[in-house]
């Protein structure tokens, strides 16, 4: 018999997460728990309340009438507690709410982005929260625990943005490359086809939202069913790749670690969208514009510094060949509707970045405005 519990805010957060994701498994990932642990916790919560809160079926977990009643009271409590904690953190920053709270998925862009932010705002208190899960970052934004976050969405697995969040696309279609041992039979190739890796095991991070599902889909489309190794620690994953025990997907801006090489995949079977997501009203439009430019410039510098990614982009005409970087081609911004006679644009300066407007999403997730900077 399960021991009953005295309800705490963390239990209410768990109920909200299950309702929002529609799945105990997805909620567990979002909360950083295992599915069995969250299932046990849910049973104890139901025992404390005295009734079933969710029905479980093939379509996921749905609140019962009692569950809806509990959630209607739990959400304001969770929101108030979140606001209390964030107000206290802002006060601890010593600037009465001027602490800039950034979030990001892990990757090479993080450090370059932070360097630009600190250079532009040398006296600003800034915090950074790194997550493997983009969905977890969205939840932190929605609950006022972050101001802005850099997230990624594997193609075919879009993120749901709650009302009150805005998206600006940084890279609409970023390819996924593969990291493999320097001594791998196909390491000398400039581009690797998935069937050439049919005998390899693949490393996946089970906490990385839909990355594993996207990889399985791509492998299945290629007629492959390799063994997947679930590894969360990046150092261990790098060692396994260097030893030739497995291969793994990586961002195209990633530098190869010792004993490994990074190669593009033929046909780009796996891609992702990188976006900067912010809470409406959390920061001024000017500050959001500046943060967008910071991350776009940082990404561009990394892209040009990666030999494999630079070659990939040159083949697609997305950047000029080496030696022409002093005046890169940048798409011209779309003029306002009342601008009837636009003057010819002046040549862009080095590393010019297109400032993307905010993209507001309706509660249904429909995009109302969309413009982006191509990779």
TrEMBL record:
CDD domains xrefs: PBP2_LTTR_aromatics_like (cd08414)
Keywords on this record?
DNA-binding, Transcription, Transcription regulation
Chain residue ranges for the region called Disordered: 320-355
Q: Where is the composition biased (Pro residues)?
A: 330-351
The superkingdom of the source organism is Bacteria
| Domain HTH lysR-type per the UniProt entry, residue ranges | 7-64
Query: PROSITE patterns under this entry?
Result: HTH_LYSR
Record InterPro entries: LysR_HTH_N, LysR_subst-bd, WH-like_DNA-bd_sf, WH_DNA-bd_sf
> What Gene Ontology cellular-component terms does the record carry?
protein-DNA complex
Annotated TM spans: none
Q: Which GO terms describe its molecular function?
A: DNA binding; DNA-binding transcription factor activity
The family classification in the record reads: Belongs to the LysR transcriptional regulatory family.
Name of the protein this chain belongs to: LysR family transcriptional regulator
């Amino acid at each position: 018999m399960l021991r009953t519990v005295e309800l705490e805010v963390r239990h209410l957060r768990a109920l909200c997460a299950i309702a929002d994701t529609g799945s105990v498994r997805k909620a567990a990932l979002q909360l950083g728990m295992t599915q069995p642990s969250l299932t046990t916790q849910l049973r104890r919560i139901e025992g404390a309340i005295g009734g079933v809160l969710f029905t479980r079926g093939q379509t996921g977990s749905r609140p019962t009438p009692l569950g809806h009643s509990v959630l209607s009271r739990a959400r304001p409590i969770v929101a108030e507690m979140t606001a209390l904690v964030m107000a206290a953190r802002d006060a601890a920053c010593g600037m009465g709410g001027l602490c800039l709270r950034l979030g990001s998925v892990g990757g090479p862009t993080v450090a370059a982005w932070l360097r630009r932010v600190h250079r532009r705002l040398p006296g600003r208190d800034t915090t950074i929260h790194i997550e493997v899960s983009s969905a977890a970052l969205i939840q932190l934004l929605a609950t006022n625990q972050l101001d802005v976050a850099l997230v990624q969405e594997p193609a075919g697995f879009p993120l749901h943005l709650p009302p009150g969040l805005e998206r600006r696309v940084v890279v609409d279609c970023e390819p996924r490359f593969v990291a493999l041992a320097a001594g791998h039979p196909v390491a000398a190739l400039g581009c690797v086809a998935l069937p050439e890796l049919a005998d390899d095991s693949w490393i996946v991070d089970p906490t990385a939202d839909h990355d594993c599902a996207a990889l399985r889909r791509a492998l299945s489309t290629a007629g492959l069913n390799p063994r997947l190794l679930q590894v969360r620690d990046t150092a261990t994953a790098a060692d396994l790749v260097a030893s030739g025990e497995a291969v793994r997907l990586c961002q195209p801006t990633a530098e190869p670690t010792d004993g490994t090489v990074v190669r593009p995949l033929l046909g780009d079977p796996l891609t992702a969208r990188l976006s900067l997501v912010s809470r409406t009203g959390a920061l001024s439009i000017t500050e959001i514009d500046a943060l967008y430019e910071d991350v776009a410039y940082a990404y561009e510098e990394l892209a040009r510094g990666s030999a494999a990614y630079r070659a990939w982009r040159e083949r697609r005409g997305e950047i000029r060949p080496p030696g022409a970087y002093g005046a890169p081609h940048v798409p011209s911004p779309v003029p306002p509707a009342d601008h009837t006679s636009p003057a010819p644009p002046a040549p862009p300066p080095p590393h010019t970045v297109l400032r993307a407007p905010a993209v507001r999403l309706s509660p249904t997730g429909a995009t109302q405005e969309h413009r982006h900077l191509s990779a």
